């Protein structure tokens, strides 16, 4: 017998609320819409099989699995990205980097290339290329599985013909001399000892996307050691940083001129901008 979608939804919300899950209503709505393949569940009835599928997802979410990982997509800036267990979920904090680059690079910029180190789902590079339609980009990641997701996202966004993905340990597989006007990176920056204490939901992200070595700064050091020949004169580097890493990352990149920092919505410094002179 078909069930009323409102009742199925209310049951899901109640289960999540009982566990004090934040945004229980939004989570239950996204999960039910996903199961029913619709944008508005209220217009539908629910079969017993779909109700069971929905309950299973609610239980998985209750156990800590993020909604994005359950439905396979996540909104970022003004786009939606495929995600899976091989990529970091795009985070609202990383939208600070988009804001910084869009401020720095005029809309009609031509013939200029962006290099994205540690592209993951491709959310940073893809969003920038959507908004800078004359630019091209290279996305690098050491995870081939992540690059499959990034490629799928580039096709979804319509930027695939301007994007090239390379599987590489940071810059190792790139030609020694390049002339990138813009390099961006949101490298793994969590200190290894802090990883076990992260909220359960973060542990659904791949470890390779989180682990910044003993002090969280290992990837910045690696990137700094090879970035100079890749940036053109006046080229700009934008780096996402973790909480409290601002000073240490500035020091690591003192081979470039520090330009300015950008804060996220909670007022924390999230992005540093450097210029090659
Ligand atoms: C914090 S995630 C960022 C993903 C995406 N750019 C974003 O902002 O959502 C870091 C990414 O760096 C990649 N990565 C880690 N170590 C790497 C290495 N040695 N070389 C290249 N990429 C690496 C990970 O696979 C992961 O996709």
Strand arrangement in the largest pleated sheet: 7-6-5-8-9-11-10
Radius of gyration: 20 Å
Taking pLDDT < 50 over at least 5 consecutive residues as the criterion, the unreliable ranges are none
Going by CATH, the architecture of the largest domain would be 3-Layer(aba) Sandwich
What percentage of amino acids are in beta strands? Answer: 15-25%
For the record, what is the CATH homologous superfamily label of the largest domain?
A: Vaccinia Virus protein VP39
Average residue-wise pLDDT: 96
CATH level 1 class label of the largest domain: Alpha Beta
> What structural category characterises the helix and strand content?
alpha/beta
Largest sheet: 7 strands, mixed
* Topology pattern, helix = H, strand = E: EHHEHHEEHEHEHEEHEHEE
Give the overall silhouette.
elongated
Structure, explained:
The protein has 277 residues and is an alpha/beta fold. It folds into 2 domains: 3-63; 73-275, 3-Layer(aba) Sandwich (Rossmann fold). The protein is 34% helix and 21% strand. It contains 9 helices and 11 strands. The chain has helices spanning 5-18, 24-36, 48-62, 67-71, 95-104, 123-131, 144-157, 218-224, 246-252; strands at 3-4, 45-46, 73-76, 79-82, 113-117, 136-141, 163-167, 180-185, 231-240, 257-263, 269-275. It has a 7-stranded mixed beta sheet with strand order 7-6-5-8-9-11-10, with helices on one face. It has a two-stranded antiparallel sheet with strand order 1-2. Strand 5 (113-117), helix 6 and strand 6 (136-141) form a beta-alpha-beta unit. Helix 1 packs across helix 2 and helix 6 (123-131) runs parallel beside helix 7 (144-157). It is elongated and about 70 Å long. S-adenosylmethionine (SAM) binds next to helix 6 and strand 6.
